[in-house]
Amino acid sequence: MKHQGESFYSDLPAHDMPLGKLLGDPALFAGVPPDWTIVITDIRNSTDAVLSGQHQTVNLLATGSIVSVLNIAFRQKVTIPFFFGGDGATFLIPTQIKEDALCALKIFRKNTMDNFGLDIRVGEMPVKRILDDGHELKIAKYHNSSLFAIPVILGNGLMHAESIIKSPDYFGDHAFDDAGQIDLSGMQCRWDRISPPADKEEVVTLLIVSREISGQSSVFRTVIEALENIYGSIRKRQPISVGQLRLKTTFGRLSNEMKLRIGKIRLLELLREKIISIYAFIYLRTFKGQRYLEKLVDMSDTLVLDGKINTVISGTVDQRSRLQAVLDDLEAEGKLFYGIHISNASIMSCYVRDLDDDHIHFVDGSDGGYTQAASMLKLKTKSLN
């Protein structure tokens, strides 16, 4: 499969088959064009921020970095793959929007530091450099629901780029117009902590990496099949359910959104947003509002495959014990490392461009699920090194 140019990702077919089958067929994956660029955002010291109670803010900032880039791509009619990581994001970006995206992210970084005191790292790496260094970067598109397709990465290319960009030696800043504007329209973080569905007991956040890239697809297939055997389909292990959704549109949350969007609080606009949020309570009780909530569940981003498995699921304590037994065995056999975080809720931030068909919802375990799972994973890999 060979595609080039800015239409590369949109031209990829979205596969509707068991995920394990997709992972087991390398012919269904395409090489990312070498003239594309990997762009990574990451909140420095995010673990400290999470432990100090700022996990909602950390998630909002990660979502904001995604929205700032997706709005640029939307205006230029370009579709790009992106990956939510709880405290940051990763993008694969064509040359056509690279400069605009990086400038927007640098302005976003300045707003974040000025208003929240949190520093977002923004880094870039040409795909060509990753490939020239001998690393793999293959991608496919997968329908994980009837409404929602996600990118699936095989290879260690994104993880290698991340290790360079997050190293102390990396210096990727370049000049940008700090008086410029960023478009964060559609970004929302207005849901309260979301308890697991009524028949579930807990929310589990998992990060899994393969020890050997040569066996990556096989290891991932084994893990996905274990998840499906123990927890059921992605819909059955979904941590979000309509019955547990509760809006929480406090002035504090609305103020945080506004500070990210425009760098300051405008009282009249804040009051307008509060009135709109009151209307939302009414709208969600209508037939169209209920349809939106049902689609929200289907369009929740609870499975990310960026060269790792990143997932947020819900289930029982017994199911988690059975899954951990499988993962412990695979770890003891030297096939993978995993990080896990257990909580009693999930949190969700949203990008809503259209209430009918164009919205996506980023999910993390409460109390910094991805960040905490990543800390466990780092300890395991560090002890090996």
How would you characterize the overall build of this protein?
This protein is α+β, with helices and mostly antiparallel strands and 385 residues long. It has one domain. 42% of the residues lie in helices and 23% in strands. The chain has 13 helices and 16 strands. Strands 1, 2, 7, 8, 10, 12, 13 and 14 form an eight-stranded mixed sheet that branches. Strands 4-5-3-6 form a four-stranded antiparallel sheet, sandwiched between helices. It has a four-stranded mixed sheet with strand order 9-15-16-11. α4 packs antiparallel against α5. The radius of gyration is 20 Å and the shape is globular. The mean pLDDT is 86.
| Strand percentage | 15-25%
Major sheet description: 8 strands, mixed
Low-confidence stretches: none
Give the helices and strands as they follow along the chain. Answer: HEHEEHHEEHEHEEHEEHHHHEEEHEEEH
Main structural class: alpha+beta
In angstroms, what separates the terminal alpha carbons? Answer: 37 Å
Tally of domains: 1
The tally of helices reads: 13
Inertia-based shape:
globular
Oligomerization: single chain
Question: Which tags fit this structure?
Answer:
alpha+beta, 8-stranded mixed beta sheet, 4-stranded antiparallel beta sheet, 16 strands
